[in-house]
Design goal:
Immunoglobulin-like, alpha+beta, elongated, 1 helix, 4-stranded antiparallel beta sheet
Amino acid sequence: MGPSDQVGVEVTDRLNVRVTGPLAANYQEIEAVIRETVTVYCRTANGIRPLDYCRFMTPDAVGLSVDETVTKENPILNRFYFTPGRSLNRGDCSLTISATQYEDLGEWTCAAVVDGAAQEARDTVTVYVSGSSHNARTLSQAGIAGMVIGLVALLAALGGVVWYKRHSFFPRSNSSTDPTVGFSRRGFSTTSSGSSNSSNSSVLDVVQLPTRILQSSS
């Protein structure tokens, strides 16, 4: 098509035409991001027609029945709720996943009974994660593992340095050191008695046993 305010410029888009039943998925493949919101959406084909009910089956074969009363504030299993702004009366069968997990990846089935129909209509939607997102997750896990290993190695190295310095600066004392080294030699005098002449003599302390001293002879 050519916008009227931009002469000579065309806007194009691509449509996927396929044959479906009364209920059809808006997109049969949806790329999701883990831990982010994704919506699985089916609607009536060939115009707006009310739905009697709407339900989904997860890739793990868990059934979820939703309508406008299942809100974001009151989700099923704390994660699944009917998409706001859509209505069963307008032919919308829409499920929003608040925090996508890896268990949500795979083929989903939407099912509903269109008003006036005798049988349930179904279609499938595949939810997947792109290869780049998967590779980013793998690299992130590898990075975390590398950081942990590096931190452990750093702590081990620091511990070795501390141990080495402690034993280098505080060596063990030599057990063969003479315990008498701390005693000084000093002279002292004694006075002999029993004679008219007194004589002074000087002797040395015995350093081997501090409690013993030599007595001067008379």
